[in-house]
Specification:
four-stranded antiparallel β-sheet; globular
Amino acid sequence: MFIKNVVFNFFRAIAITIKRFPVATLITGIGTALAWFLIGRYSVDYPRLTKTLIVAVVAFPWEVCATLILERAFEKWHYRLAGQAGVFIIAILFYFALSSPLTAADNARAFIMTLVGFVTAFFASFDRTNVLEHWQFVGTSISRFITAALFTIGLGLGVSAGVLAVNYLFFDTSYLNVWLLIRQLWIIAIGIFGSWFWLAGLPQAKGKSEYELPIIVSLFLRYIWIPLVIAFFVILYAYLVKVLLLWQWPKGGVAQWILAFAGVGMVAFLVAYTLSRDAAHGWLQKIFVGFFVSLLPLVIVLFVAIGVRMNAYGVTEPRYLVTMGGVWLLANALYYLFSKSKTLRFAPYSLSLVLLLAIAGPWNMFTVSMNSQVSSLQKLLVQNHIMQNGQIVRAASPIVLSSSEYDTIQSKFEYIIGHDGAAKIKPWLPGLAISNADLTPYGSSNIVILNAANVQYNEPAPLAGDALSDYSFAPEMEPAFDTSGYDFIIMNVIASSNPRTAGIGATLPSGSFTTVLSGATIVEIKKDGIVIGSLDLKPTIEQLRAHYGTGIRFINRSDATVTFENDQYRFKLIINDLRVPSSTTDYSIDNFTFTLLGGKK
């Protein structure tokens, strides 16, 4: 009878959840199915399915938010369903707004939209005059979320242990397949069980009930959280005194610490909001007034610290968000100090607005950051005579920069191209032999461009006993190279000073392939222990020294690739890192990292 009641209540809870959140539960089903399918399939790209999964994750909290708002506004279920369907249509439009494949900007937008969705779901569906109702709903929702998380973790661990036990006792199959199954089961536990468990426990937004802050929360605020806020306050103000006494610019990282301090304080303020309005806890009101007053000079320090970084290195997405965080803190401090209403909603609503402005509109963080980095890079190129009349041209003689200048320029190239801004710099490059394949987020385009422009840097003086040259090439990750015409790939590290000269080989049905260093410069390729090919790297080392000189050098794609063959096999060797003595008479290899492709002719 007990089991029957448990099963009945279980399915009854599922039915109620689906009836109340029909579109949200549908989305969790779609997202779970897609995640289950995509996990473990890293070798094949599914851009449409990945985009759909991202959209499902973003749409879930917004569907919950729409349901809670519509519950208050409409009694009839079909009005609520129509509103949920409207959000679903907006989610479909969001799908077509995403790039294919997804970019870093798309992922950032999706994360922020999901965060804003949850914040809005907690705070958007309440009567403005009933503060206690806010906390009845929010407190219950957060408690249910924590409970769902604990139950989901327990279920996932239990199922994982069961799968491992069954495999060990009965099947003893490959653990790669077992761990893939376990990850898929975790996806189901989180996507279906966890989300539905949370939804099933969400209270009705129309409910009217009294709420009293639990005693455990009151004690936690009084003896742990608020003392932490005070400790942060003392540390940051001690640093502020140091900055004023030494009359120096604050460190850039202090902005993050100020945001952390403010975050801890804001959470304490929101949690204790109803308690602070009680006359019996007037001390809390005084503490929070002091907290908001203390924020004002700290926000000024935040703006100065991040402003120094922006002036030196330009705007990036993290610096933009830190700046917007400072704006949010300043607005909240002024509002809660001088506003008469001091409504609880201002903090989460203003946070949502700031986050939405960061990802949408003409001054979003992606556009502002890209324009700032492009402008800053162009200025540096002109100052160092690398760019003339809006174009980068190859200098007749090497342009030698300091290490810091070189690193700054190449990092800006890396940022721009890595954030899908190659179109911004293509008009600069018609005079250089730069292919579209070089201008990819995963390539070494920053180094290729500077090498093509004949830009070098003064390397630091070598340490005592350091007399090595290092030639490095970072191949693209997707794809790294063309494998057509080859049967096997060996990714290896060979060190003459290391007894392990064979490195990592490749075992295929056709044989076991390895590479070894024979003598000072000869790489031998072996199949089942028998040499099937060899390459003397001495000519390659001579060419690298002649073209790049000695020292730490990044080399072009063409110079990093060597093809060779014999009567039976053809090979392609791609240099990742080649370290040899600086002496032009010594060719002995100290360290060699490479990728070798081989195949029968």
